[in-house]
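Hypothesis: this fold can be encoded by more than one sequence.
Test: take the structure tokens below, design a sequence, compare later.
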């Protein structure tokens, strides 16, 4: 009995294959009947479990996340290898301890132990669950997706990125921006906030926009996508379920002091350090729209401490170029622009974040802040007391005048400089091009 129990607990792979080793001589009759019935139960084949193409997310030099939609309660997994034939592939299951995460709509799997700046091939899989004997569980035969590849970031990776923002479920312009990302072959895309039309009423709304966008499903199957939340991403009753649909960063990246900061990131993409900051809502916490239960002001202040700590990391401190990504701009030249600290209307820029984060960006020679929110491309060059430039991306509009158009903001190191191009996808031209010298590492 004890030997059989040990074999059962250690035999997850055998369970998946439907074969369980047991010590029959030690079995009681009823227990023997249960084991015999379990082993005799057929392993069921179920199709249609996987309900979307995969979306790579939460990239890091030694790990990569992937999510995909499923159609029933199931466990998700990924096989990954350093060759397209998946020889010697390692399998990773949905995260969870002591039980792998089960879900009836989304599978989130993290591949760990990877090498920086290295190419890998992978395929996602899922299995539903059956219960042939009471609560004893057996997986169905796995259903597999297609083989895709990705490259991990790192100091030796390509110094290149793309940014999209304020897509708001406008699927025609969304197709334009995702096609442009593919054309540019960027190794990573930052989705810089305001993904839903207005808010998330149901969890399914998040699933739909992330994994089943009407015009571009699968756009992130080989290009990891980092989500920087915008103000609209915090709205609606289902926004609280965001982390069950979109994978947060690995907890070990940020440490216990910053456990709340699941979507902040700082890592090297070649010569560029990418830093993600979350500006939160565009109204103060006391605004009635927030219902009295938000604490974005404290949230920004926690990020202030986190941001300062990132420049103590050798790989960030030594980066020739540093770019910070936010949704709400950190600067507006209009002295009457709403700073996000008053009850009237909504923020044009985020004064608290600018006051707390701006000096840290200045002191560490950050060259560029990339923002969205305004639905209109704008460039703010550095000025006295503000050493960093700011580029603000366009919105989802194709029919609202010549100054409103969707953009892809591309950054790439060329000839020792960081070159940033703003692609106007309505008129198919470059709306602006800017270059930055290497920073003085302090």
């Amino acid at each position: 009995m004890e030997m059989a129990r040990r074999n059962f607990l250690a035999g997850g792979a055998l369970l998946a294959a439907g074969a369980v080793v047991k010590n029959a001589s030690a079995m009681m009759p009823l227990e023997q009947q249960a084991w015999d019935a379990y082993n005799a139960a057929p392993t069921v084949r179920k199709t249609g479990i996987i309900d979307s193409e995969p979306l790579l997310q939460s990239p890091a030099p030694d790990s990569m996340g992937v999510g995909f939609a499923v159609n029933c309660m199931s466990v998700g997994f990924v096989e990954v290898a350093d060759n397209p034939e998946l020889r010697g592939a390692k399998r990773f299951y949905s995260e969870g301890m002591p039980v792998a995460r089960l879900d009836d709509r989304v599978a989130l799997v993290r591949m760990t132990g990877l090498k920086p700046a290295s190419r890998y091939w992978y395929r996602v899989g899922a299995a539903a669950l059956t219960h042939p004997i009471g609560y004893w569980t057996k997986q169905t035969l796995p259903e597999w997706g297609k083989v895709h590849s990705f490259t991990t970031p790192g100091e030796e990776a390509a110094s290149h990125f793309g940014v999209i923002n304020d897509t708001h479920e406008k699927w025609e312009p969304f197709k334009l921006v995702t096609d442009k990302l593919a054309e540019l072959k960027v190794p990573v895309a930052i989705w810089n906030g305001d993904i839903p039309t207005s808010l998330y009423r149901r969890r399914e709304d998040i699933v739909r926009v992330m994994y089943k966008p009407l015009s571009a499903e699968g756009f992130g199957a080989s290009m990891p996508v980092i989500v920087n939340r915008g103000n609209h991403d915090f709205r609606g009753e289902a926004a609280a379920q965001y982390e069950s649909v979109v994978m947060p960063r690995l907890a070990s990246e940020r440490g216990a002091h910053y456990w709340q900061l699941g979507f902040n990131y700082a890592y090297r993409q070649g010569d560029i350090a990418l830093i993600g900051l979350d500006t939160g809502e565009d109204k103060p916490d006391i605004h009635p729209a927030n219902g009295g239960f938000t604490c974005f002001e404290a949230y920004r202040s926690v990020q202030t401490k986190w941001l300062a700590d990132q420049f103590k990391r050798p790989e960030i401190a030594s980066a020739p170029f540093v770019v910070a990504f936010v949704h709400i701009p950190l600067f507006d030249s209009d002295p009457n622009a709403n700073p996000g600290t008053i009850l009237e209307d909504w923020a044009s820029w985020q004064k608290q974040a600018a006051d707390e984060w701006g000096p840290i960006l200045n002191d560490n020679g950050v060259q560029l802040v990339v923002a969205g929110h305004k639905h209109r491309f704008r460039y703010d060059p550095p000025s006295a007391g503000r050493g960093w430039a700011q580029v603000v991306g366009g919105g989802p509009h194709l029919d609202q005048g010549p100054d409103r158009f969707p953009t892809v903001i591309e950054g790439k190191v060329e000839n020792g400089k960081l070159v940033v191009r703003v692609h106007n996808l309505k008129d198919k031209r470059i709306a602006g091009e800017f270059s930055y010298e290497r920073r003085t590492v302090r």
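The first strand starts at residue 55 and ends at 60. Residues 2-40 form one domain.
Hypothesis status: open.
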